[in-house]
Amino acid sequence: MTSVIQRTVQFYWLRLRSRDGISNGTTGHINWMKRLSEFREFPWENKILDNIIFDSVTDKHYPVLTVFEQFQPNFMQLIDQEHKRVTDFMDSEAYSNTNNLAKSSAFAFFPKYSLVSRVSGNAGKSVDPPQKSTKLLLA
Fold first, then answer.
1. Angle formed at CA 60 by CA 38 and CA 116, multiple of 5 degrees
2. Residues 48-60, mean pLDDT to the nearest whole number
3. Phi then psi for 26, rounded to 5 degrees?
């Protein structure tokens, strides 16, 4: 039997802001598909900001920005149902010094409505729409 996964989707209106903070219009004219397609081609190092990795998915109907917030797996346990044991994740075969765990979020853009939706995994509280990522995408 397949399990049902439920997620809450949050929606945000996108508005442009001038330097003095006054809202001065919608983002309807921004071609998010083009911007996120260009962003997808950035080198790996340019997609990381404050240990948060950003990437994009552009082969769907709406462009999506993916966000991966790395975290330390200290004191995380791995439950092995097959062998009926619990082991420390850091001691398991799944752990490696070159791989990290991450909490994930995805932001889907709906350009026609100047709207973005956000859904997150359940590995703790994921990042809110980050202010710095705007610089990363629009710079």
1. 75
2. 90
3. -90, 175
pTM of the predicted model, to two decimals? 0.68
Q: Which residues make beta-bridge pairs with 10?
A: 118
DSSP states along 7-59: ---EEEE-EEE-TT--EEEESTTS-HHHHHHHHHTS-GGGGEETTEEEEEE-S
Distance CA 127, CA 102 (A): 11
Q: Tens of pLDDT along 75-110? A: 888 888 888 988 887 777 667 777 777 888 999 998
**Cα–Cα distances in angstroms (integers) from residue 87 to residues 46, 93, 98, 122, in the given order:** 36, 10, 20, 21
Question: How many CA atoms are closer than 13 Å to the CA of 139, on its beta-carbon side?
Answer: 9
**pLDDT, average across residues 24-32:** 75
